[in-house]
Amino acid sequence: MSRPLLELDKINSFYGPVQVHFDLSLHVNAGEIVCLLGGNASGKSTTMKTILGLMRPRSGTVTFDGQVISGLETPRIIRAGIGSVPEARRLFGAMTVRENLLMGAFIRNDAAGIRDDLARVLGLFPRLHERLGQRAGTLSGGEQQMVAMARALMGRPRLICMDEPTMGLSPRFVDVVLELIATINREGVSVFMVEQNASLALQIAHRGYVLQTGRIALSGPAATLARDPRIRDAYLGGEVAA
Amino acid sequence: MNWGTWLDYTVNGLVIGNIYALLAVGLALIFGVANLINFAHGSIYTVGAYVGWVCITHLHLPLLLTVPLVLLASAVLGVAIERLALRPLHNASRIAPLLATIGISLVLDQVTQLVFTPNPRALPSPLPDWRFQIGGGSIGTLDVLILAVGLGTAGVLYAFLRFTKLGWAVRATAQDMDAAKQMGVDTNRVNMSVFAIASALGGLSGMLVGMYYNNIDPGMSFDATLKGVVAQIIGGMGNVPGAIAGSLLLGLIESYGIALFGTSYRNLFAFVLLILILIVRPNGLFSSAKETPPEPMTGSFVARGKPLAIPRPVLVAVAVLAVFVPFVDSDYVVQTATNALLYGLLALSLTLVAGTVGMVSLGHAGLLAIGAYASSLMAIELGLPVTLSIALAGVVTAVIGTLLVFPAFRMRGHYVSIATLAIGQIVALVILNWNSLTRGPIGISGIPPLSFAGIPLYDAPQAYWFVLVVVVALALLQARVLSSHLGRTWRALRDDDVAARAHGIATDRYKAMAFAFGGFGAGVGGAVTAHLYSYINHETFNAQISVLALTIAILGGLGNITGALLGSVLLVGLPEVFRGLAEYRMLIYGVVLLLLIRVRPQGLLGTA
Ligand SMILES: Nc1ncnc2c1ncn2[C@@H]1O[C@H](COP(=O)(O)OP(=O)(O)OP(=O)(O)O)[C@@H](O)[C@H]1O
Ligand SMILES: [Mg+2]
Q: How many whole angstroms from B472 Cα to the centroid of ligand 2?
């Protein structure tokens, strides 16, 4: 089997004296959707920050496409081909939807390609079409989530990292967003997503990991995990019997 | 006044407004991306003015060459400041960069003064001196140039932010730095570019102002920073178009104010307007939200560190030794020691307010002024015994000071510092303008000397002992209070005032108590100073003293009583001991401040 697209190897990370990750290792193969499950404060967002270079692990390495990216500055990591849909979306609220999408293409210089991608992305998210001139801060939560995903796509990443893309959305919108993630993936983008909503995430994911206080407690193919009774306890915050 | 005169005042207001706009726009850009009020901005403006002066009067360069050189030199300076002094502070507490810019401004101003001497210089406008008559008023070539530069800059800036990639990066970084990074924006480069642009405009502003008044001097920095900050707050912090509108408004208000009331009122309008805006519309005139923009908890605004425990016998021994200082038999040494102790009183007060309660005041010298005037006037006009007038002055200062700062009690972080700075300036300006009470610019002379039980204390050792007793008594009292329930409540406010309020603590009342306590000490300090000097005026207790007091409090460790006294002795005493250094005083203060922030942000003895 070829090397994984993204690989975290024995990551130990800290906030001051507090250790968040304990020898955390996981990987994402090209073409996969991998979800990271886990209860509150288990260290999911910290995993994202570590991949994106917003935080440095004390030890361990993050490798993307054969290149060690832990230690690089965030902009360099983005340029290497990773897109980000941050926790709570983090749109540029005072900028229009269009400007937000174009910010997503900040690392690119091919004007024609950007224009084509804008059209392509709007094809995926038709709702955004009529909102292009609206300030992003005034959109509904679901629409904002779409902008965040579309924005990440505009950079033509090979891997998109999403932190709780369904957070705060109505059940109907959750389905829409998950379907969109599957669509994005079918177009060839690998996805690494953090979710609390395990049963839904596992419907579209290929594989999953369950994080518990900074350690991988369970992992495996999505279908297997979905049937595992221990999963339910885990993301509700209970102990996973190892 | 006729129409022509009004027109002249309007042109003048717009010209000044454009000059403020060049400053304020830069401050807004910097606040946007770096979340920082750049107190060194006025110093760059001064450097710009001097670069212009060298180019025009010494090198005889045409304006078309001078302007690019001024822009370039100022931009390089701005980039150097960002790169060398501010970027290393990225992970420091929120107040660190703000204090660093204060340190930088002290250093730059003193260097400018050393290079170019403190004397004012003429900076003649190289433009032909034509005046165009319109509707009874007139407008000169320089007016036209400044208006054109202002308009042109606004246009270029708009195009930059709207249509260039770097401009987009600036806007995105200002809204959410982490999100911008995740779009691949190199935010360090954005920061540096913003400092370059802001500084270039600031320098240009300084040169234009120099030409407008045909006068520049190294002392013009502070006022420029303040005006820029005021204009920016009127328009809303970090809001670039708001900064331009705020500047024009400020320029017009000042100009009409001068027309109606006279020049000495000019700054009073600016600062009263600032306070009003901070209270009524903290987001600026042009923004709808009423809430103050989020600022960090005061606790995280200040650097923290464990206090060093100094054994009680050591403290007692030092106090006893201090009694014997006058036996060195040198009036100079004794006077210096007295001076250090007086600064100690001020620092004790500030370390309480800024360190224990977490409200970093930049206008503390205003309290000295209130105490000084109160005691002098009571002694002279009412004939009160000096000891009594000093004590009463403390009470008066406690009351007035608390009332003045009251509007700032709900503010946080930066806003407290700006509000207190403005309040300090307002005190000085009221003193300047309230002729009937304060004798205005003439000041008060013939203030009776310190006395005890009716016996005047004429010689230096007696005055020293008097001050020593006051300092020791107030320091002990403060230590006592800090270890009581009240002290714990104060620290709770500092660490999280929202939580404190949620727990039913009347935060305003506790902050008032802190300011009353601190105001009393500072008022007594000012009063004693007045009786020692025998002459005071509205400039005796200026903003430099406020900055020095803050440096002392930080040097000792914010909140730390022993630290405040140690800091005073070190910062006020040492430059005097090495007499040659006195000339480089502000430079030393600036460097000390910069080093401290970098190396030991918790101060020598640690925060308490
Ligand atoms: N900036 C920070 N400073 C200090 N501690 C932090 C910081 N961010 C997170 N933590 C702590 O690290 C631990 C892991 O946080 P993280 O945000 O990674 O959890 P999470 O799994 O994403 O939780 P949630 O499901 O609530 O988003 C938590 O205990 C949290 O309190
Ligand atoms: Mg999280």
A: 52
pLDDT-flagged residues of chain A (< 50):
236-242
pLDDT digits (tens, 9 = 90+) for B24-66: 999 999 998 988 899 999 999 999 999 999 999 999 999 999 9
| Cβ proximity of A74 and A232 under 8 Å | no
pLDDT (tens digit, 9 = 90+) per residue, B212-244?
A: 999 999 989 998 999 999 999 898 888 899 999
3-class DSSP string for B269-289: HHHHHHHHHHHHCCCCCCCCC
Q: Which CATH number fits domain B3-128+146-295: 1.10.3470, 1.10.8, 2.40.50, 1.10.150?
A: 1.10.3470
Contact B182 A78 (CB under 8 A): yes
Report the complex ipTM. Answer: 0.92
Domain positions in chain B: 3-128+146-295, 360-533, 542-575+584-608
User: What CA–CA distances, in Å, run from B463 to B139, B320, B341, B389, B444?
Assistant: 58, 17, 11, 16, 20
CA distance linking residue A161 with residue A153, whole number of Å: 11
Its pTM stands at 0.89
A52 and chain B in contact, CB less than 8 A: yes
Q: Please, which residues have CB within 8 angstroms of residue B499's CB and are 6 or more apart in sequence?
A: B492
**What band does B573 get if pLDDT is binned at 50, 70 and 90?**
confident
- CB nearest A78 (choices: B168, B169, B184): B184
Per-residue pLDDT of B299-343, as tens digits, reads: 556 667 778 888 888 888 888 888 888 888 788 888 889 999 999
Query: Is any Cβ of chain B less than 8 angstroms from the Cβ of A238?
Result: no
CA dist., res. A33 & res. A182, Å (int): 8
A189 Cα to the center of ligand 2, angstroms: 23
Residue A170 φ/ψ, nearest 5 degrees = -70, 155
Of B165, B171, B184, the CB nearest to A79: B184
Nearest to A90 among B165, B171, B178 (CB): B178
pLDDT of residue B293: 56
CB contact under 8 A, B171 and A79: no
Mutate to test the pocket of ligand 1, among A20, A48, A197 (most ligand atoms within 8 A of CB): A20
Give the DSSP letter string of B80-117.
HIIIIIIGGGTTS-THHHHHHHHHHHHHHHHHHHHHH-
Structure tokens at B252: 């017009």
